[in-house]
């Protein structure tokens, strides 16, 4: 499936700020089932862009706008060709639990087995586990257990933007019975890790199909979960839409939780409030695209190194992490 993605982020400031520094997690991954045809960033004001790979292998772009400005617009355009993961077994043998306990798996997936940030066991989560008898699922094979967990989360919670925000703990969703993709992914991650199943947060996009029963917001980024099963490697589950990740899912970045893969975050210098607006469009491409796999900039040039803010001005830095909640939205 060939998809075109347009992701627009706009920051508006009540008065001009002196400087902005930003990091972006917006480039789709390059994997065996996902080919990045093209990726392009358009910035206004124009800025020099740098890049690096973070500790999880995600592509990160960063830039500095060193002159006064009262708005900042970031437009990321991608073309991605995806493939179906192929046939998966309906279940695995019970020996998969022993393989999950192996030293190799525990070492290889160390970061995705521990509580972190939004992903942790709370009293509210334990109550949810007990009410739905989720620990009984460990008597089944891991693939069946995780699939049933995803179905349970889908059935237990209503999809409703606006109930939670990007910084909301899982307890808010657990008490309200409502939330968005980010919340459902965090709950599923916490349960899987509690079972000893490595699980990671995936930030990306979904080509929404209402006829297929999707309830995700088509104009927002998306989030789901990947679990590591030794016999299958990483397998994606989408608890928001009650399905396994497939060719309509476009993965951008993976991490321990949302905090590792925020689409954009940064700081600015100046005494001003900021407002954020985000828009996402995912559609099927009309014709085959043949653009090279590199970042194309309309105006900025590339260079090495990264500029950091003056220590003397640290007290004036205002954090502007993009609270583009993954509805994740």
From TrEMBL:
Compositionally biased region (Low complexity): 319-329
Basic and acidic residues bias (residue ranges): 307-318
Ranges of residues in domain Transglutaminase-like: 173-241
Recorded superkingdom: Bacteria
Location of region: Disordered: 300-329
Cited PANTHER family: BLR5614 PROTEIN-RELATED (PTHR33490), SLL1049 PROTEIN (PTHR33490:SF6)
Protein name: Transglutaminase family protein
Protein species of origin: Caulobacter vibrioides (Caulobacter crescentus)
Species lineage: Bacteria, Pseudomonadati, Pseudomonadota, Alphaproteobacteria, Caulobacterales
